[in-house]
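Researcher: Please generate the 3D structure of the following complex. Treat every line as part of one assembly.
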Amino acid sequence: MNDVPPPPLAAEVNERELLAMARMLRRGRGTFVLAFARCNIPAQRERLVSTLRDVLAPLNVAISEVTLSGLQADIYAELTAVSTNANGDPLFVYGLESVMPSEDPYRALAQLNERRGRYQGLARPLVFWVAEYVYRLIAEKAPDFWGWRSGVYEFVSEEGIARETYQREMAVPYMQMTGLALAEKEARIRLLMGLLDDYRGDDRETRSARSNVLLKLGQLHEELGDYEQAERLYRESLKTAEELGDRHGFAVTQGSLGHLARVRGDYEEAERLYRESLKTFEELGDRRGVAVTQGSLADLARLRGDYEQAERLFAASLKMLDERSKNSATGAGWP
Amino acid sequence: MPLPTTIDDAYNAVNPDVPLQSGDPRYVDMSEVRGGDDLARLLAERLRRSDRGEPRLFQRQLITGHRRCGKTTELFRLRHELERHGYFVVYFDAETELDIADISYLDVLLSLAQQVELQLRESPLKIELKSELLQNLKDWFAQTILTRIETRDTERVLETEYGLGLESPVAIFARMLATLKGHIKNSAQRRKEIRQELERELSAFIERLNELIDDAQARLKAKGRAGLLVIVDGLEKMLMRDVSAGFTSHEMMFIHHAEQLQSPRCHLLYTVPISLLYSRHVQQALGESEVIPMVSVYQRDGVTPHRAGRDKLVELIARRLDVDAIFADRALVGRLVEMSGGHPGDLLRLVRFAFDDSETTVRPEAVEYAIRKLVNDYDRLTHDRDLELLWQVHREKRVSGDPEFSTLLFNLLILEYNGDRWADVHPAVRATRRWKEFGARTPSKPKAARRARAKRPATRKK
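Model: Done. Output below.
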């Protein structure tokens, strides 16, 4: 393990994990198996689950699903309320983070820890689909429950167009977030938090830098699946940009918020934010911003199944990107 | 029974969740490679010794070990061993009997009495305790602790939900526990009050419990039994959290209420969290402690493989499945053993991880896949701030009583090996990139020198 191989492609990693999970679901049928699937983007999760269903259908393994919501006090009761368990088919559990209220996020986890003996009675594989930060909380705060796991599937986030936007937008060279090891992302967060501490001045330059850092931090938190924190950071960045009259920065952060809405599955809000962002870029004559935001809108249309619209927007975005790259001295694209 | 020869069949054989019963063919005696003595034999000897003493003393024994190190499997063996020597052993798991998240010593004591009564009655000896004593306890509880309304409510619930007749003396424990655990409709506040009531009347409460236990002891003696041992398993799983005044829930239970936990007049064995092991107070307070250590996979130098230990762990797998039929190469099991750090739970988990990546045969790629999974998991638990301390443990091969080690032990980042208590960092932590980078940045320095350097005022600021 001394030399670090280049990170494999997200698609390859995900396929291997998917197969591994399908094997566990087949072999563990009818017995209690605790597994965790790490996936930070709900939309991606939906695609993965749908593929799993297809893979398992010929084997007559049917997946049940339950989404926890913050209202339930008893997770176990929620899980047992899901019926159709005659064959010991697997149960997928979503939304664990929603039962972790911010004032006492550990209560729900404590509940998992204390009742773990009861889960055995479920006699079916139990898969918690969680974002990275939730998985980590479970490991730390519900160690006995976590210590029960015999399957862990780590799906890698697919790189989105919006993410590329930010990557190029940053003044500091932007690291490839998806490929980074968790530890490095965290190190990055700490570094940025440190920077943020330094950016306390009231002059324009400092505030502008602060706004950029907030934006980046938001992106890192989004990458780790901590959407609430990401939103908080984006909103602060947005406010600063507005106060500075930085229309460009404002539009960029709106794009980030749009992306966050997208990964949370709120497509209407995502579109609204992208459109506002696009409008600003157009007014500023920022062709790059326009092209990228068109790309985001195209991707959104694709997710919604509006392929005509997606194609139209992708084409427009591409055309603009193409023109830019022709004009660019390096030919590589971005100044 | 023939061993499974396919992964599909072997999947359930490597289930880490099921402790082995005494006499299970899958049991591998680890005592000689764990180091230290055979726990079951050692404890049996201690009990007999304290029984011979005059005045008769009761043995209070603490058992600890890392999560899933095979504690319960060893306790089952101990029970078997002691039964062979004529003891009546009451075993119960606090995790299944009690609310492990919000547990107090009162729950433990009450459960203990309940289990003694129940297990005596249901044993082949069919011993029934004096009903007067049960009735006394019931009346005392109803009169002293509960309000009349609560008594009525309690009885209704017990009758309808638990199917227990009001006149059944057995119902008393169910009733009291239900009240304490809040199963009967009462608020968290009222539950707290009930506990406070009990605490005020503590000596009376304990005296009544002990009357029952004395009665049990007398009846066992009449049947020719050597004595009574109660094993309370699962207490180490109680949640660690700060309760009050800088004390954790663990310290409240095992240090502040040690005296109460010691009060039952019989031999007692409690499992305690490994993080408490290094607390001097707990040993003073609660008696002798024994660790069920990991089987070491390295010699104490941390480099030379510990052959005998590894062989035993390979055997642990080989007792569960046909290694040659399932693994492309027998050495692959050795590789998993090495990365498990000697922790049986992690070893079985690694095998399952490798199965996930394998269709029919476990190949080297699947083994590396499994290891990467475990390394990622330990990477998540390792904080940058702990790296220095972890490296120190790795270099010095021991942990001190400092509280800062508690969490690291609790989370298995540090594993404890054999009798003379040496420790090392989990191999999965040592395989993380951060671990290696930190080690490369900070070459080995004696601890004292580092401390001295840290104390020196920072005058050379660049």
